[in-house]
Amino acid sequence: MRSDKKIFSLMLALLSIVQLYAQNNADTIRTIKIDVLVGLQFDLVRFNVKPGEKLNLIFSNSDDMSHNLLITKPGARLDVVNEALKLGQKGPELDYIPISSSVLWSIPVVNPNQFRTLSFTAPKQEGVYPYVCTLPGHGFIMFGAMYVSSDGRMPELKDDPNIPPNRRAGDNSLSGTQHTNHQVKDQAVKIKTLHPYTPVSPYIYRVFIDGASPAAIAVSLPGDLSYCWDAGTCKLRFAWSGGFLDNSELWKGKGDVSAKVVGNVFFRDKTDFPLSFSADNKTPKLDYKGYKLINRYPEFHYTINGIDVYELILPNVDGQGLIRTFSIPDVKNTVWFNTDQSDGVKYKASAGSWEGNSLRLTPKEARKFSITMTMKEGGML
């Protein structure tokens, strides 16, 4: 691994020399460098270019997992991310790049300690052009913004709605700095010590993990608790205590390596689906809409048969389980929350009445209710 990184660094150095020579002879081409930070983040979260400017983008990957980079039309990032998710089993062979008119330029999957370059001419139309990694689910948090404008103006970092929320806080000087061709060659040195936030729980990681679909979302919580929420099936898959994830053998582009759980699983969902709007618990039609961060905790948004559902998961105050808060504001029928006796936890509800292993809630009660899940004695599955 150490020799691979030396070769990687040497290749980048040689590339920089070639670029410097080219820049001295063709100052009209500007070079932009983007690398990857730990925690599914681009190091350069935004930059500004002029309309019609000729660009050479170098995307290098110093992370321990693979990434790609797509530049989309303004406002099209989430549409492209969701189209990439729909590629399913075809995703790896297509580098998770969907066939879409919203994708303007793309860099295929770049494995760890490799890089690729992309030469293109910036759009003549001014606007904010997102760039994003579209490996399964990464794009919900791994994105940035290319500002195309003649005057070089961008909003204050803390007020920029076009970058991830956790990048709007703190001092990230590169995010708001304009680079000339001669300045950008020094950027590679600076980014090695730059990190946008301290990885203190709660934090999110998009991973391939056994027991979930390729759209798994792993969340580390305070108190050594963690859980896996599956965007592909719109439900909490399992939860564990005692650590987070071992990514040392994480998937590197082949799709056959998963992150490993560190600790002990204390809950595993064994229902067909935990929520239903009828007593017969028919298979629902599900659609994942994304999530937003509330005090750094993700609140997941999805629909069941077209009805909006919001789910926020927090650690129990005693560190012995989870509190799941559901909001179903527009439901008109009875809601059932379904459990299984062998799933590893004991349940307590803030509303509704239990009928066997299912909680029955009126439409009014279902507008907002909480489920406390406490580890059973022994606490492990």
Main beta sheet? 6 strands, antiparallel
Helix share bin: 10-25%
Integer average pLDDT = 82
The side-by-side strand order for the widest beta sheet comes to: 19-20-21-22-27-24
Tell me the total number of β-strands: 27
Structural class, by secondary structure, is mainly beta
Determine the number of helices (DSSP H or I, runs of at least 4 residues): 4
Distance between the terminal alpha carbons, to the nearest Å? 36 Å
Q: How large a portion of the residues is in β-strands, by DSSP E?
A: 35-45%
Task: Describe the protein in words.
With 381 residues, the chain is mainly β. Helices cover 11% and strands 39% of the residues. The chain has 4 helices and 27 strands. The protein has a 6-stranded antiparallel β-sheet, with no helix packed on it. Strands 4-10-9-6-7 form a 5-stranded mixed β-sheet, covered by helices on one side. A hairpin with a 2-residue loop joins strand 25 and strand 26 (358-361). The longest helix has 24 residues, at 2-25. The radius of gyration is 23 Å and the shape is elongated. The two termini are 36 Å apart.
